[in-house]
Backbone:
């Protein structure tokens, strides 16, 4: 009887639409929790426990999706109490999956609350459950995807908490498992997840001073992304490739491989300009790519080309801010301004540089303390340029 009632409730939940959808979903979920609680209280066996946990976790996820972490926390506390009393009749994949779902949802809740230490603990618990499931059913399967998700999140959280050893361990695991999923399981859609892992791992390696290793990862990622475009020349795949190429250009520039960096940045710019009129390339890519090329031309001593790219970067950053103001957008404008001043001074365009510096001073004065700390490198770069600027009075 419970199965039949839950089936109907799931249909109603899935069909909810329009302005009243949230209220309908909430009422359906409350009824699911009530029915499964009553069944569990009548006979607390493996099946009734799993049904109650599914209802509690679905409800907790719904509350998180609608920005009610306190409500989600109550349901997760109830789920944790149920799990604490649960003595498996058998250590089956279904029973372990209930534990995995609990750790996954709890990790998401702690992420929402910006509590990275607790989120990391839950992610590592998820990995442990996935490993237990693999011991029951060796080989690749659903537990492999769970392990990939947990390892990826644990890597990012460890990196954020400045635990380099744990971050490397989790990144290595995430990369290995994602490659298994893509290359051996052939799971559709997971290629982009693999590329996300590579991008984030390369950023970690760069911070650790391991630029050649980061560059090697990105070269492999670029090859994978090009295959995606070759197999299906879609805007979403071109955007993915452009993102990988941008990161590759930045990494190669930091490693002093300017020609390789320039080649990657130009390819990415071409992809973004192709899709510019169709809103398929993130608007941040174009000012960022022009800025990256300006950096490269300055490093190569070709100030005239740097001036052209810095001008393009600044114009596009200004246009972006006019559409939507944001801290990252103001950072892109500040970077473009610093590059433009550098190019103008190298070319002896001191009057233009003075006007640009005045504009930059107004930008910086409008920054709050957080923005000043976040963009300190560009602010210092402008301050140095201002000191070097000859007096034109």
Residues:
């Amino acid at each position: 009887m419970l199965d039949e009632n839950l089936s109907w409730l799931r249909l109603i939940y899935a069909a909810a639409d329009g302005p009243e959808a949230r209220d309908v979903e909430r009422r359906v979920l409350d009824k699911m929790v009530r029915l499964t609680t009553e069944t569990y209280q009548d006979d607390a066996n493996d099946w009734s426990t799993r049904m109650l946990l599914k209802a509690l976790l679905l409800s907790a996820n719904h509350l998180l999706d609608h920005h009610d972490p306190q409500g989600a926390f109550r349901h997760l506390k109830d789920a944790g109490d149920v799990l604490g009393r649960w003595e498996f009749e058998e250590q089956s994949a279904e029973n372990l999956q209930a534990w995995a779902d609990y750790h996954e949802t709890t990790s998401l809740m702690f992420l929402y609350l910006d509590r990275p230490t607790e989120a990391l603990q839950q992610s590592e618990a998820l990995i442990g459950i996935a490993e237990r499931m693999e011991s029951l059913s060796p080989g690749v399967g659903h537990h492999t995807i769970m392990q990939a998700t947990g390892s990826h999140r644990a890597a990012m959280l460890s990196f954020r908490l400045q635990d380099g050893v744990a971050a490397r361990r989790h990144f290595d695991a995430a990369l290995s498992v994602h490659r298994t999923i893509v290359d051996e399981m052939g799971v559709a859609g997971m290629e982009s997840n693999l590329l996300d892992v590579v991008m984030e791992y390369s950023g970690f390696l760069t911070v650790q001073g391991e630029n050649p290793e980061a560059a090697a990862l990105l070269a492999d990622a670029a090859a994978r992304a090009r295959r995606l475009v070759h197999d299906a020349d879609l805007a979403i795949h071109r955007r993915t490739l452009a993102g990988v190429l941008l990161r590759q250009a930045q990494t190669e520039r930091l490693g002093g491989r300017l020609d390789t960096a320039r080649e990657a940045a130009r390819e990415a710019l071409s992809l973004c300009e192709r899709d510019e009129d169709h809103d398929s390339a993130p608007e941040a890519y174009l000012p960022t790519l022009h800025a990256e090329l300006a950096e490269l031309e300055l490093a190569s001593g070709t100030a005239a080309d740097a001036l052209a790219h810095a001008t393009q970067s600044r114009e596009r950053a200004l246009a972006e801010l006019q559409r939507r103001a944001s801290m990252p957008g103001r950072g892109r404008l500040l970077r473009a301004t610093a590059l433009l001043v550098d190019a103008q001074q190298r070319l002896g365009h001191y009057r233009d540089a003075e006007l640009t510096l005045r504009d930059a001073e107004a930008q910086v004065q409008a920054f709050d303390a957080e923005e000043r700390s976040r963009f300190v490198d560009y602010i210092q770069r402008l301050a140095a340029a201002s000191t070097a600027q000859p007096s034109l009075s």
